[in-house]
Amino acid sequence: MHARHVAVLAVAVALAVVAGGCLGSPSSGPNAPSGNESFTVEMLGNATHSVYVATHLYTDRPEFVTLEYANGTTREFELPTEQGLFQGDTPDGLRSVATPEDDGGVYFEGSPTFTASANEIAPMETVVFVVRVDGSNQVAAWGVANCDGHVDRVTLDADGRNVTVGGLACSN
Fold it and tell me: pLDDT value at position 77?
């Protein structure tokens, strides 16, 4: 096969992967305690960029996360304890959201629309999510979901490089 055909084949495979929304496969955190619950993160939207979502699951609500900025400064942010879905601020220069050690999670990268689930896990009452768009070093969105029982689903929406919280489903 000529080098030109190999290059054309490689581009065709890459385009098929992007069109299928399969830039990465969902993976679940290695330390999620077993149980009979599931958690799903759903990314909706019309973004043509790749979206990376990391969701950290907790059986006990963590007290804070650490926001890390491009200039090297950090700030502890106290997480809300009320039931609901809360989106944190994402100022320019927010490079990461460091979370306490989690009980497992769901991580996915691909083009919207996708759904990724962690199955057969213990009831998790808190989820902290962090979203990046198109391999950027900037956090596009982050937030926390709290339920009195179990967080079933978090829905996010990507419109270009903007990500917003769409919804939360809980069960008791």
Answer: 95
